[in-house]
Every structure is written in C-alpha cells, then in structure tokens.
Amino acid sequence: MSTSPRTPPNAAAEPDGGLLGVLAAQIKLVTALLAVAPGTAEIPVMMTVLADTTARAHPLLRAHAPHVPALLAQAQQHALGLRDDAARSDLIAAHGHLRTMLRRTDDNDSTKNKALELDFSPGDPSE
Questions:
Q1: Three-class SS string for the chain?
Q2: Torsion of CA 37, 91, 26, 11, to 10 degrees
Q3: Residue 37 and residue 82: Cα distance in Å, rounded?
Q4: How far apart are CA 88 and CA 32, in angstroms?
Q5: Which of 8-17, 36-45, 83-92 has the highest mean pLDDT?
Q6: In this predicted structure, what is the pLDDT of residue 58?
Q7: How many whole angstroms separate alpha carbon 109 and alpha carbon 8?
Q8: Are 107 and 15 spatial neighbours (Cβ–Cβ below 8 Å)?
Q9: What is the pTM of this model?
Q10: Rounded to the nearest 10 degrees, how much is the dihedral formed by the CA atoms of 67, 71, 72, 73?
Q11: Per residue in 17-76, pLDDT tens?
C-alpha cells in the first residue's frame, strides 16, 4: 500500500497559481511598456511570449477566468495594430480578472501564491 499522497480527481481543475501568476506578471510588464514606450520593437516580441503563456494556461483560464483569453487576443491585435490605448485597456481588464481569481485561490490556500513574488534583484543563483 502506497503512502504517497493521491492527486484528487479534480486537481486539473484547480487554478495553478504559478502559471497564472507568471501570466499576470507578463501582462503587467507589457501594460507598463505600452504606457512608457509605445511602438517599440519589444512589444510584438512580448505579445508573442504572452500569447504562448496564454496558450499554456488556456485550460485553467477556460475553467476559472473564461474572459481572459479573449481579452488577451484582442490586446494582441490592438498592440500589433499600434492601438496602444486599446491594448492597454484589454490587458488591464485581463489582469484584473486574473488577480481576482488568484486572490480567491489565495483565500482558499494561503501558501499557494507565495511563489508569485518576483525578485528581479541580482543574487546568488544557488540560493
């Protein structure tokens, strides 16, 4: 008899704070870039990375934040069409939906979102 913890049958339906936290951080970064440096060459690259992360998170988003994929797709089209204000608006709405969902997840399990804190300071990579 195994003593390892079993994965509950509905585990796939639980929000993944790590992946969704990364998505939220990417949205926040792209939104800021659109505000301070609209039209720069980095925006299409960052929107592509954001689209890739969205695709990886799609099953979770469909189950827990169904408006987010459409908002992010609209934001990408707006950004690529150099409609920065519209892109930022869609990104802010998507970020709001994600943060609300992540807060609900955090309310249910206060340890889940601890890994979402991003540290950009240089440090020892072995730590």
A1: CCCCCCCCCCHHHCCCHHHHHHHHHHHHHHHHHHHHCCCCCHHHHHHHHHHHHHHHHHHHHHHHCCCHHHHHHHHHHHHHCCCHHHHHHHHHHHHHHHHHHHHHHHHHCCCHHHHHCCCCCCCCCCC
A2: 180
A3: 12
A4: 8
A5: 83-92
A6: 93
A7: 16
A8: no
A9: 0.69
A10: 110
A11: 689 989 999 999 999 999 999 888 999 999 999 999 999 999 989 888 889 999 999 999
Buried/exposed code over 30-67 (b: 16+ C-beta within 10 A; e: otherwise): bbebbeeeeeeeebeebbeebbebbeebeebbeebbee
Measured between alpha carbons, how far is 37 from 53 in angstroms, rounded to an integer?
22
Residue carrying structure tokens 């960052």? 46
Q: Which two tokens stand for residue 94?
A: 């998507």
CA–CA separation, 121 and 72 (whole Å):
28
Contacts of 98 (CB under 8 A, 6+ apart): 20, 23, 24, 27, 65, 68
**Amino acid (one-letter) located at 56:** R
